[in-house]
Amino acid sequence: MADRPTLVLSDIEDAMTTRVVDEGLAEFNEQQAGYVDARPLVVSIRDRDGATIGGLVGRTTLGLFFADLIYVPAELRGQGIGSQIMQMAEEAAVRRGCSAVVLFTIVFQAPDFYARLGYHELGRVECAPPGHTRVVMTKQLR
Question: The pTM is what?
Answer without folding.
Answer: 0.87
